[in-house]
Amino acid sequence: MPLLNSKRLVLASASPRRSELLRTLGLTTFQVKPSTFDEKLDKALFRHAADYAVQTALQKGLEVASSELADLVISADTVVDLHGLVLEKPADAADAETMILKLSGSRHAVHTGVALVFPRAVDPKTLKVPRVVTFSETTHVTFAGIPTAAVAAYVASGECYGKAGAYGIQGAAASFVSGIEGCFHNVVGFPLHRFSTEMLELVESGVFD
Hints:
The chain has 209 residues and is an alpha/beta fold. Helix content is 33%, strand content 23%. The protein has one domain (2-204): Maf protein (Alpha-Beta Complex), CATH 3.90.950.10. It has helices at 2-5, 16-24, 49-65, 93-103, 148-157, 184-188, 192-204; strands at residues 9-11, 31-32, 72-82, 85-87, 107-118, 131-143, 177-181. Helix 4 (93-103) packs across helix 5 (148-157). The longest helix has 17 residues, at 49-65.
């Protein structure tokens, strides 16, 4: 952490949850620069929802890295995968209610794609800058059956907006969750354990040398 905090780190996300999660690790000096990348990639081009999330995260990271002087740009994208149906952020209240009702009484996957862009490092495969590392983490979440009135009340609270699948597991929607398999923080929006593991390997490999 002392090494990372001595570098110029940029989080390419406007999500306050991702900023908070990074701070829990001890990262305190990073800057926040939301990406302006239009997140409308054609989902039909990807075999798996996790691949779609990774590519979206990568494009967001590259976009920010192209305009920021940074040692590392961190970007991420989270999607909810209901048996192949990709659910992202709801457009409005009706869209949010529809999403949650679809998730009610079922098991779904939450994929977070992460891109680590090192603008000043040489990629060992291409021998060019930037060096890019991508990965995804998947967590399975099971929702109990949710009464229609409860869905309407949750959406009316406003907590559903800005969240993949129209729910935040760290908030009132925790009452919908009957089971979880995998990283809890991944569902919140950023896989802390996987990120820590990947960063440790990269630092030990001399990525900042």
